[in-house]
Amino acid sequence: MSARIVLPNGSVQIMRRMSRSHIVLFSLLALAASAFAQAQTQANTEPAQYFFVLLNRPVNAPQLSKEAAQRLQEEHMANIRKLTAENKLVIAGPFLDDTTLRGIFVLHADSAARAQEWADTDPAVKAGRLSPEVHGPWLIDASTIHNPAEPSGFEQYSLVLLKRGQDWNPNAAKFIDAMKQHAVFVKQMIDQGNLAIVGLFPFSDQGEIRGVAIFRVGVEQTAKLTQDDPTVKAGVFRTEIHPWGTGRGVLASGQPMP
After folding, report:
1. How far is CA 228 from CA 89, 120, 139, 218, 233, in A?
2. Could you say which of 121, 131, 189, 236 would form a disulfide bridge with 195 (CB–CB 3.0 to 4.6 Å)?
């Protein structure tokens, strides 16, 4: 599978000013994005941008009665259905453990600002119960995301936040070598049926989270598998793993809900 890189106007001059190491890393990110899923069967038209949104529970989130919380949840779900029908939202789902991370959106948008605008339409965000944190573009293979005609049921996955490790240094030869091996590892995970979707964020996204992987297996098995990731072994990434769920058919099948 080959990677097709489309550069905006003026990028030639920008690329000439970049150091050789950053050009290599740019290419590695493109390689990783192409290796992260099965070969696409449809011709590409225009580059799709996907933005990954973490939905956090603020420390000062207002307390609601049971009835008010139920109404807000119904409004939250109605807005999810609306964004999905408008082809803006392609993945949504809650974390299944008890932390301040409550869920995710994956939005198909032309910019991070637009993704933020759409995330802010959520009634739970407006009510101060959720706070969206936008990352991206998320460099994924769009063919790994599906739009089931009639989603039925719910499946569980393991969502891995790939965070900046102690040896994160894009200029180091060790970093570049680990990234090359990471692409091979990811392909193995996909071929073995362990991985549903994965992608990194560009270096322009300066956050601590550098990418996200969603595994089709349980948390314990995911923890064991990620220990063999060359970037984890090299200290480039460190992992934070959470049980997570979404509608059946959106991604390659996960685990049935208990």
Report:
1. 32, 38, 22, 16, 7
2. 189
H or E element: which one contains 135? strand 131-135
Q: What mean pLDDT do residues 1-14 have?
A: 32
Assess contact for 170 and 244: CB atoms under 8 A.
Answer: no
pLDDT digits (tens, 9 = 90+) for 45-82: 445 699 999 999 999 999 999 999 999 999 999 999 99
- Single-letter amino acid, residue 58: P
Check: CB of residue 162 under 8 Å from CB of residue 211. Answer: yes
Greatest alpha-carbon pair distance for the chain in Å reads 59
Give the closest residue to 179 by CA, choosing from 15, 40, 35.
35
Q: How many other CB atoms sit within 10 Å of the CB of residue 23?
A: 12
| pLDDT single digits (tens) 111-152 | 999 999 999 999 999 999 999 999 999 999 999 999 886 667
C-alpha to C-alpha distance for 227 and 220, rounded to whole angstroms: 11
Please tell me the distance from the alpha carbon of residue 256 to that of residue 120, in angstroms, as a whole number. 31
pLDDT class for 15, splitting at 50, 70, 90?
very low
| Whole-number Cα distances in Å, 251 to 62, 145, 156, 245, 248 | 33, 5, 11, 10, 7
- φ, ψ (nearest 5 deg) of residue 141: -90, 115
Distance, in Å, from the CA atom of 115 to the CA atom of 96, rounded to the nearest integer, reads 24
Scanning 62-108, the segments in alpha helix (DSSP H) are 66-85
